[in-house]
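User: I'm preparing a small set of examples for a lab meeting where we compare how different chains pack in three dimensions. I only have the primary sequence for this one, and I'd like the structure in token form so I can line it up with the others. Please keep the answer compact; I'll paste it straight into my notes.
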Amino acid sequence: MKKKIITALFTIVFTLSASIGFTQPPPPPTGAGHGASGNQTGGNAPVGSGLVLLLGLGAAYGGKKHYRMHAEEIEE
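Assistant: Understood. Below is the structure token output for the 76-residue chain.
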């Protein structure tokens, strides 16, 4: 029981420390730091195509695993 508590504690600590390590610094104050007049909006990352790619690869991998598991059940 003690080993499970220590393992859970280490898992929580390492997870939280990893999320803190990847934080971004705050943006510069309005009107300073970007050299242009007016408020500049940040750039948007194209998440749509990458998300579709990851979902497609995940579905293909899951289908492959399901097919192999089903094929092994039939052989037995």
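A couple of notes for your slides: The chain has two helices and no strands. Residues 47-75 form the longest helix (29 residues).

User: Perfect, thanks.
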